[in-house]
Amino acid sequence: YMAFGLLILGALLLFFLSFIHMPLLIVRPGKFIIPFCLANSFIFCSFGFIYGFYSYLKHLFSSNRWPFTVAFLGTTILTLYVAMVMRMYALTF
User: Fold this and answer.
1) Neighbouring residues of 87: CB distance < 8 A, sequence distance ≥ 6
2) Which pLDDT score is estimated for 43?
C-alpha cells in the first residue's frame, strides 16, 4: 500500500506541476506534456501494486482491454519521445 500511495502522491504532484504550466502550452508544450504523461504512467503503474503485477497485466491484456492498453501505452510513449527526444513543437502540440 505504501508504494501505491507514493505513486499516487507523485502523480498528483506531477498533475499539479503540469497544470501550473498550462498557460505555457502554446509557447512550450513540453512543459505541460512531460509531467502530464508521467503522471498518467504513475497512476497506471500504481494499480499494479494493489492488484499484483501479474494479475494486473493479465487483466490489462485480456481480450476486451488489450486494444485500449496498447493505445494508451503507445500514445504515452510516443508523446514522451516526441517531446523529450525529437523536441518537435508541432507534433508535441
Assistant:
1) 30
2) 95
User: CA dist 92 to 14, 17, 38, Å?
Assistant: 18, 18, 15
* Matching residue, cell 502550452: 25
**Mean pLDDT computed over 62-91:** 89
Are 68 and 59 within 8 A, CB to CB?
Answer: no
Nearest CA-CA partner of 66 in 77, 79, 75, 57: 57
pTM for this predicted structure: 0.83
Give how far Cα 39 sits from Cα of 46, 58, 62, 83, 90, Å.
Answer: 10, 22, 24, 15, 22
Cα gap 26→33, rounded to integer Å: 11
Helices (H), the chain: 2-20, 30-51, 53-60, 66-81, 89-92
